[in-house]
Amino acid sequence: MLTVFTSTNPVTNAARRLTTLLREHKDDDALLLLSGGSAFELLPHVDTTTLSDRVTLSVLDERYTYNEHASNFSQLTQTPFFEHAQKQHVSLIDPRPREEEKLHDTVRRYDLALKHWHITHHNGIVIATMGVGTDGHTSGILPNPENPETFSHLFTDTHTCIRGYHVDPRKNPHPDRMTTTLTYLQRRVQYAVVYAVGDTKRDALMALVAEEGSIEKTPARVLRSMQDVSLYTDQQVRGEKT
Question: The domain that contains 189 carries what CATH number?
């Protein structure tokens, strides 16, 4: 279920929602998957006292790179939120490639880590922060309307949590990617807090909320079929709550 909230202060409202979810589930085992990019703007406003050793922290998607400035997880480690999380003794799933580790091997390790978490935390919940790109992507799932069969093969696999793939560098400056799949987002993420602001996001948001549309063209349409999604924006889109 997707609910869109439009306001003049979406970052505070989104952070408040994330804090509320963490507080409500403080007695549960929780996997907190954070999106990079603008979604990191929420973190300074989140009450980190809601974190504990029952929380496992990771990212929703990652670039296959040794460049710390391009890595979502590396950027996360530079935030005060991460520093506070470590003081609260959270566990970590670090998806960054190890020395001389190939994309396939990094993806397999990342995928197995998530599967292991779900096996060892039968009643655990998954909370994710998410964003929406100007091209309509979410997590690390990039649009590919020209090749719907390839898109489906990559992102609707029911046997994997994480999929690795390569895109044309002319299409994206980060060509080697690892991402949670559409199926994982739909089946495993109980709560998502989505933050998407600015005029450049308006077309993507309109494509997201439209009754008809292609998920291959606008992967963020997966938000419509996830379990509990709260989207916070400063843009007027159909179906929003103020």
Answer: 3.40.50.1360
Q: Which domain range does residue 62 map to?
A: 2-241
Would you write out the chain's pLDDT as a tens digit for each of its 242 residues?
999 999 999 999 999 999 999 999 999 999 999 999 999 999 999 999 999 999 999 999 999 999 999 999 999 999 999 999 999 999 999 999 999 999 999 999 999 999 999 999 999 999 999 999 999 999 999 999 999 999 999 999 999 999 999 998 888 888 999 999 999 999 999 999 999 999 999 999 999 999 999 999 999 999 999 999 999 999 998 654 43
pTM strictly above 0.90: yes
The total number of structural domains that make up the chain:
1
Name the E strands within 104-242. 125-130, 162-166, 176-180, 191-195, 229-233, 240-241
Q: Per-residue DSSP letters for 47-80?
A: -GGG--TTEEEEESEEE--S-TTT-HHHHHHTSH
